[in-house]
Structures are given as C-alpha cells and as structure tokens.
Design brief:
The protein is mainly alpha-helical. It has two domains: about 5-180 and about 295-325, Rossmann fold (3-Layer(aba) Sandwich), CATH 3.40.50; about 205-290, Tyrosyl-Transfer RNA Synthetase, CATH 1.10.240.10. It has helices at about 15-30, 40-45, 50-70, 85-95, 100-105, 105-115, 125-140, 150-170, 215-220, 240-250, 255-260, 265-290, 295-325; strands at about 5-10, 35-40, 75-80, 145, 175-180. The strands form two sheets. It has a three-stranded parallel sheet with strand order 1-2-3. Helix 3 packs across helix 12 and helix 9 runs antiparallel to helix 12 (about 265-290). The longest helix has 30 residues, at about 295-325. It is globular, with a radius of gyration of 21 Å. The protein starts with a strand and ends with a helix. The structure holds tryptophanyl-5'AMP. Tryptophanyl-5'AMP binds near residues 132 and 150.
C-alpha cells in the first residue's frame, strides 16, 4: 500500500500566511514521496454559523489557494469533504468509540466555546475532533502535516484508531502528526499571545493570502511590537519574534542573520522591509491564484472527489464489516 498523507483546511475565513507557513507549504514536500490527499473541510466549517453563499465561495477560494501554492492535482487528490459521504459515515461510527472524557480534554473546544458558554455551544463543535479523526483514518494516512494547534486533534485520531483496532481487530493505520519546526505557530499581529487566525474578528490580527499590497503594508505598520527598539530574537519579545519568524520564512534567512542585518537599526526599517518581502511573495502568489477559473477548479474538485471516494468506499466496507453491518 502507498504511504499516504492527509490534511485539510476549513473554509471559515480568508486563508492567512499562518495557514500557508504552518500547513500548506509543508504539504508540498510530500507530494512526490507520498500519495497525498488534501481536503477543503466544509463540514468542519459549519460547526460555527456560516453564510451559505460565502461558504460556497470560500470553498472554491481555498481549492484555488491549494493550486496556487503548488499542489498538483495530477499527483495529489484535492477535493471537498462534503462530496465524499464516507467522512460523515465514519464519524458516526467513531462517535461510538470516542468518549466524553476524550472530547472534554480538547483545548480548542474550550477556547471556542468560552465566548458564549459551553451550554450554548453546538454539538457539532464539540464533536468536531471525531469528524477530523474520520477524515484522517478513512485514508489510512500515516502522516498528517498540520500546525501546532491541531496536534491534539491528531492525537485523538491516534487514540480512536488504537481503540477501534483493539475492539474490532486491525483496521486503521495509526497516524502521526507532522509539524515542521519552521511551521511554528504564527501569532496574531495584534496580539502575540494568540495564533494568527483566519476567523479573528480584527483584520489587524492576520495577513490574508489574498490581501492587497496596501493592506499588507498597513497591517505590518500597525503590528504590535515589544518595548525597546533593537531587533532581537528572544522569548522576552514575543511580538518581534513573531515578525522575525515571518521575515525568516519568506526571506529564507535565519533569525540570527536577520538580527545582524538590523543591528543598530530600528523597528521602522525592519517593518518596511518585512512588508515588502511579504508583498513580493503575495504578488507572485496572487498571480497564480488568478490564473484559475472557478469552472476549472470545480472540475478538479470533482475529479479529486472521485479519486478520494475510491479509497474511502473501500475503507468503509471494511469498517462496516468489522462492526457487524450487513454489506
Ligand atoms: P484550520 O482550518 O484552522 O487551519 C488549517 C491549517 O493551518 C494551520 N494553522 C496555523 N499554523 C501556524 N500558525 C498559525 N497561526 C496557524 N493557523 C492555522 C493549522 O494547524 C492547520 O494545519 N481542524 C483543522 C482542519 C482539519 C484537518 C483534518 C487537518 C479537518 N480535518 C484532518 C488535518 C487533518 C482546522 O481547523 O484547521
């Protein structure tokens, strides 16, 4: 069996450079060695309210971003989660294996339900990690390249796979999270204690991959910095450290070299240069993005779903047999 990887992104906002650095960029490295399956997880997106028209538009937008990033549909399957019904089917079966105590540990649910209180949080939001486990286990993915914030969810997929295998016999491959060191958590530009988040209420939290040059310059100019004026890469200066990490990713220079480049210079110069580095990357990126038409992308997604379905259907047959369903 080919070694497989699986990953996905929710169409719940405009994708940020955090999503690119933490996830998509790392996917590219796997395309040749692994059979890669990349999903736009719209069923995850609706665990918080979405405007249907916007969801529809964003789903295609994310697929275009995958393509513009260099995911090659000839090598990898790119598809939309809701077009392969087996995701929901397996999630239901895994619901009977998951325990309330497993889900109570999930920090993302705690964070997301904090605002309006646990009692009014949706059941889908609570159950979200089980659907994510289904996504991964359905494809026998060995590796799951994600940003740091998703590691706990991949760990849950491991737990459920092991428990299912124990109860019903060897069925699922035990997946491993893959987090690249350079895929460290990119922090919010307005608050380095939080991650850069496409669902953030303030546009000053993130740089979107589809932001225009003026917005990027404005956002970086406004980004919070720490006290002092030197460009130093240190834990004590989390806001600056985050900006240096972003610089380092796009300029391919190490944080130490960046410190040296700006010795004796102030935040102003550093921020101006950083903005231009990001603008230059986004210019090329958006050119590729704009070269795809919606029709072309919808066709690629349809073909991707067909490829994914071949794997998913086979796996579901095996799972159904194991739990005693009539095939
Ligand atoms: P999502 O849509 O929130 O984020 C997509 C990917 O981007 C990474 N990421 C970040 N990395 C670094 N810094 C940041 N500020 C940052 N923000 C986001 C995330 O870690 C993720 O890898 N539950 C998932 C989607 C999902 C999935 C899956 C992923 C559903 N099923 C199966 C892998 C496998 C999510 O909400 O990611």
């Amino acid at each position: 069996m080919a070694k497989r990887i699986f990953s996905g992104i929710k169409p719940s906002g405009s994708l940020t450079i955090g999503n690119y650095i933490g996830a998509i960029r790392n996917w590219l490295d796997f395309q040749d060695e692994y059979e890669a399956v990349f999903c736009v997880v719209d069923m995850h997106a609706i665990t918080v309210p979405q405007d249907p028209k916007t969801l529809n538009k964003r789903t295609i937008e994310i697929a275009k971003i995958y393509l513009a990033s260099g995911i090659d549909p000839k090598k990898s399957a790119i598809f939309v989660q809701s077009q392969v019904a087996e995701h929901a089917e397996l999630a239901w079966i895994l619901n009977t294996v998951a325990r309330v105590s497993d889900l109570d540990k999930m920090t993302q649910f705690k964070d997301k339900s904090q605002k309006n209180g646990r009692e009014s949080a949706g059941v889908g939001l609570y159950d979200y990690p089980v659907l994510m486990a289904a996504d991964i286990l359905l494809y026998d993915a060995e590796k799951v390249p994600v940003g740091e914030d998703q590691v706990q969810h991949v760990e849950l997929a491991r737990t459920l796979a092991k428990r299912f295998n124990n109860n019903f016999g060897e069925t699922f491959v035990i997946p491993e999270p893959f987090v690249k060191k350079s895929g460290m958590r990119i922090r919010g530009l307005d608050d380095p204690t939080k991650k850069m988040d496409k669902s953030s209420s303030s546009e000053y939290n993130y740089i979107a991959l589809l932001d225009d040059a003026e917005s990027v310059r404005r956002k970086i100019k406004k980004a919070v910095t720490d006290s002092g004026s030197e460009i130093i890469y240190s834990e004590e200066k989390p806001a600056l450290k985050n900006l240096i990490n972003i610089h380092s990713f796009f300029s391919e220079k190490s944080p130490k070299d960046i410190e040296k480049m700006y010795a004796g210079k102030g935040y102003g110069e550093f921020k101006n240069d950083l903005a231009e580095i990001v603008v230059s990357f986004l210019k090329d990126f958006q050119q590729k993005y704009n070269s795809y038409s919606d029709e072309e992308v919808i066709k690629i997604l349809k073909e991707g779903a067909e490829k994914a379905r071949l794997i998913a259907e086979k796996k579901m047959q095996e799972v159904k047999k194991k739990v005693g369903f009539i095939i």
